[in-house]
Design brief:
Blueprint (H helix, E strand, L loop, with lengths): L3 H10 L6 H20 L6 E5 L3 H7 L4 H22 L3 E8 H6 L2 H20 L2 H5 L1 E6 L7 H14 L5 E9 L1 H17 L10 H4 L19 E4 L18 E4 L9 H13 L7
Parallel strand pairs: 1-2, 1-5, 2-4, 3-4, 5-6
Helix pairs in contact: 1-2, 2-11, 3-4, 4-6, 6-8
C-alpha cells in the first residue's frame, strides 16, 4: 500500500489534467501533514544551510546567473521566516565561501555583495530583527569585502546586539579551514606571549578562539544539529569544519531557488528519525 507521502507525490505528478486549485489543495494537505508529523518532535536548535544551485537553476531556465542569485536571495528570506516560526534558535547561512569571494568573476561578486547589502537593509527597515528578536553575526574574512558593505555589517550587528532570542550567522567570505588556521595563529601568539601554556590547550580552550563559537548565549549553540545542503551535491565545501563533527547531514536534490517548505519539513523529519550518538 502506498504511504500517504508517496500517494500525495504520485497525485501531484498526475495533476496536469486537474485544475490548479485542486493541485494546491493536495499540496497544502501534504504540507500540513508533514508539519503535524514534526510538531511533536525535537526541533533542531541550530541549523546550518548551504544554499547551493542558484547558478545551475538559472542556466537550466535559460537565464543569467545573477537572476538565479536574485531568486535564491528571495527564497532565503522565506526560509529564514519558516525556520524562526518553527522555533529554530540559531541559523547559519553559507552566503559566500572564501573561494567565492576570491575566485568568482568581479561582476558576479559585486552582485552578490549588493544582495547581502539589500538583505541587511530589509532586516532593519522592515523591523524583522525586532519582530523575531534576531541578533545578526557575520563570520569570515571580512577584510576582503567592499567598505560600504563592511559599514552595513557593523550597523546591523550593533543594532541587533540587544537581542539573543534568535541568532542569524552569515558566513561571508568564510572557509572552515581558514577559520581554524586563523584561530591557531592567535593561540600560538598567546602561547608565545605566555598567556597560555602548552598544557592548557584542549578542545574546550581551542573552540574559544574560533570566531563562530564566540559570544553565544549557550556554548553548545555553536555546533549545528542539522546541516541542509541543496542541489543534490554530497559534500560540505569547507563549511564549519570544526563544528559539524557530529552534525546530522541532509542533502536535498532541489536547487536552492526551488527549495520549498515541504523540503524543510522533510529535512527536520529525517533529523528526528535519527539517533544521535555523538561518536559513542
Amino acid at each position: 500500500m502506498l504511504s500517504l507521502a508517496r500517494l500525495a507525490r504520485s497525485l501531484s505528478r498526475r495533476l496536469k489534467f486537474v485544475s490548479r486549485p485542486l493541485s494546491k489543495l493536495i499540496y497544502d494537505f501534504y504540507e500540513n501533514w508533514l508539519y503535524a508529523q514534526i510538531s511533536e518532535g525535537p526541533i533542531p536548535k541550530h541549523i546550518g544551510i548551504i544554499p547551493d544551485g542558484n547558478r545551475r537553476w538559472a542556466r537550466n531556465m535559460g537565464l543569467d546567473v545573477n537572476v538565479g542569485h536574485e531568486v535564491g536571495y528571495e527564497r532565503l528570506e522565506e526560509v529564514l521566516k519558516w525556520l524562526w516560526d518553527l522555533g529554530v534558535k540559531v541559523v547559519t547561512v553559507y552566503a559566500m565561501s572564501y573561494e567565492n569571494c576570491t575566485k568568482r568573476r568581479e561582476e558576479e561578486r559585486a552582485h552578490l555583495f549588493s544582495l547581502i547589502k539589500r538583505g541587511i537593509d530589509k532586516l532593519v527597515s522592515e523591523r524583522i530583527l525586532e519582530k523575531y528578536k534576531v541578533r545578526v553575526r557575520f563570520l569570515g574574512r571580512l577584510g576582503i569585502i567592499p567598505e560600504n558593505l563592511k559599514a552595513e555589517i557593523t550597523r546591523v550587528e550593533e543594532l541587533s546586539s540587544r537581542y539573543n532570542e534568535r541568532i542569524l550567522n552569515v558566513a561571508l567570505c568564510y572557509g572552515g579551514r581558514q577559520e581554524i588556521v586563523d584561530a591557531v595563529r592567535i593561540l600560538a601568539r598567546d602561547v608565545k606571549e605566555g598567556k597560555v601554556s602548552i598544557e592548557e590547550i584542549s578542545e574546550d580552550l581551542f573552540i574559544k578562539y574560533l570566531p563562530s563559537s564566540s559570544d553565544l548565549p549557550e556554548p553548545d549553540l555553536s555546533e549545528p544539529d542539522l546541516i541542509i545542503r541543496t542541489s543534490g551535491e554530497l559534500r560540505i565545501s569547507n563549511f564549519l569544519l570544526w563544528h559539524i563533527a557530529y552534525s546530522e547531514l541532509y542533502f536535498c536534490d532541489a536547487f536552492w531557488p526551488e527549495f520549498r517548505r515541504i523540503d524543510l519539513l522533510r529535512a527536520i523529519r529525517a533529523y528526528q528519525k535519527r539517533h544521535r550518538r555523538f561518536g559513542a
